[in-house]
Design goal:
The structure is a homodimer of 327-residue chains. Chain A has 2 domains: 6-153, Rossmann fold, CATH 3.40.50.10490; 165-312, Glucose-6-phosphate isomerase like protein, domain 1 (Rossmann fold). The longest helix of chain A is centred in the last third of the chain and has 24 residues, at 289-312. Chain A is an alpha/beta fold and 327 residues long. Helices cover 49% and strands 13% of the residues of chain A. At the A-B interface, helix 2, strand 2, helix 3, helix 9 and helix 10 of A face helix 2, strand 2, helix 3, helix 9 and helix 10 of B. Chains A, B: Residues 13-173 form the SIS domain. Chains A, B: Keywords: Aminotransferase, Transferase. Chains A, B: This is SIS domain-containing protein.
Chain lengths: 327, 327
């Protein structure tokens, strides 16, 4: 039963983290779109923490890999929208048995993941909008809350300030992009292959768009190319008619994105470019804009997906295998 | 000037690791195919080390991310075949300036990466064969040598025993696969999209095959799908005519591979399956077979690539952009 507010749930989970004897590792464990939400958090821990190692793993891989560092010094953060993903529920049980502190995100109170975890946060779900209570925002609040609790990081204050603005930023960005979104949908409705490309914290939303939107929901072949890896293999498939959706971020990895974009734009006539600056990401505090930009990209990309689905006559809800059979 | 043997170079690098005050992190830093070689090493550190965190990063991402844990407690292992990859050379300089111990692999003595690093190992290069002096073997010897030096791990003995057999295993596997390789090449020579799939330690060679062979050397659209992620998005693009090359490994993640294979084989008629057991990987000590199997897969996959290139009349050496222009 949901009796606490989301903020109270987060506060309680962070109090447990503060009361831990030691924290050496944060494992971020989930599958698919939920796994993609974890990637910017691993990125943030690596950039900001001197004493904690962060690692995002697919839940089946987590079980198989059985990280030797998993134990009493570990916080394991898990996410499953339905709370029923078997691999993620099992990962929570494994983590808890190893003595780790488990904190789970799910939309469904009372779900198996909720039951399996010590702390649960029941986030808000509403695509094409964003708030401090959406799942990726809850993850950022947890990550920077842990860094505050364990290392005295002050960035959580800026995270909260950024999240207070993010709803308005996303609404405006989607409204501003209306014509670009319509043009993209018409131009790509018959494409058999569309790549996504990003780096840094934005690899997560670009990966999610490739595997959850293109492959899963639109049956379009895709891969998420890391912009730094692009020049060491993938760029050879670039040609005038090969479409890419590229995210250009703010912060440390922007130059990596810009280098890939400069090349790709020269040889492909099919680039769709989403620039964090044009989407208003810079209205958030500069100290955390790079960590929160994936939330803006993912919401805006969902608007791109929605319109593409309309143009193709292939609703985002259609599946041929998922939820329809045992697998 | 190459005056030391490869084994002496490794021994000297490991002596420096043993003499370090502390080692909290190993960063594996490279680009493209060399980055792919790093992934099984991150995997091994996560499975086997209780005190050291392992992290593989593209070199441009490493520079941008600027991990806060990078410092005197870090060993940074880098690789560039030519020793001239600018991002990797720069990463070595950044790591060294931060106080980390730098160990580089390159085929070219006196190259910029050699010059930038404290220790260099000049590995043997000969595709479609394998030995203890090939680059992925040198990486395994370093990784398990570090675990021996810092944590007393005994596995390096089994690594050496496995590497003593691996040349023969690879030669036999390629000979045994001759008909399968010829059939694969003919069946795939006109395919515009071919996926690869793997999990665990074998994600590295499957990623390399997708980005270096298909995208770079054959101009075929591709993505490496993690077998655990497959069910959370990518599996929806599976159809009777969609080709996959799947690696089925030995060890902890085999069940992840088998689950994906069982589904994919049901809905695609175009599965090419390479099973580590059929390739003779089990002849190596069971304690390390899962860590050394990527070396067998990558060598056998190169034989698959060679034959595909013949069937397409598109040599593996052809490029349209790489080495031909500034980028």
């Amino acid at each position: 039963m949901l009796t606490e507010t989301i903020t109270t749930q987060i506060t309680n989970a962070l109090k447990a983290v503060a009361d831990c004897g030691t924290v050496t590792d944060i494992f971020y464990v989930a599958c698919g779109g939920s796994y993609a939400l974890m990637l910017p958090n691993q990125y943030a821990v690596e950039r900001e923490s001197s004493s904690i190692a962060g690692q995002a793993l697919n839940a089946a891989e987590f079980k198989a890999r059985a990280p030797k560092r998993l134990g009493k010094g570990s916080v394991v953060i898990l996410c499953s929208h339905s709370g029923t993903t078997p691999e993620t529920v099992e990962a929570a049980k494994i983590a808890r048995a190893a003595g780790a502190l488990t904190i789970s995100l799910t939309h469904v109170p009372g779900s198996p993941l909720d039951e399996a975890s010590e702390h649960t946060i029941n986030y808000t779900h509403a695509p094409m909008s964003m708030s401090a209570e959406h799942s990726p925002a809850v993850l950022a609040r947890l990550t920077f809350g842990i860094l505050a609790a364990r290392e005295g990081s002050k960035l959580v204050v800026d995270i909260d300030a950024g999240l207070a603005k993010i709803g308005g930023i996303v609404d405006k960005a989607i409204a501003d992009q209306k014509e670009a979104i319509a043009a993209y949908a018409e131009a790509h409705k018959r494409e058999p292959v569309i790549y996504t490309m990003a780096s840094g914290a934005n690899y997560g939303p670009a990966y999610s768009y490739a595997i959850c939107i293109y492959q899963e929901m639109q049956w379009i072949h895709s891969a998420c190319i890391h912009a730094g890896e692009y020049f060491h293999g993938p760029f050879e498939i670039t040609d005038f008619d090969v479409p890419f959706v590229q995210l250009v971020g703010v912060g440390a990895s922007r130059s990596v994105d810009e280098r890939a974009l400069a090349f790709a734009q020269k040889y492909s006539q099919r680039m769709t470019v989403l620039d964090a600056k044009a989407l208003g990401v810079d209205e958030m505090p500069a100290s955390v804009a790079e960590y929160l930009q994936p939330l803006v990209f993912s919401s805006v990309l969902r608007a791109y997906a929605d319109k593409l689905a309309d143009a193709k006559g292939h609703p985002l809800s259609v599946r041929r295998y998922m939820w329809k059979m045992e697998y």
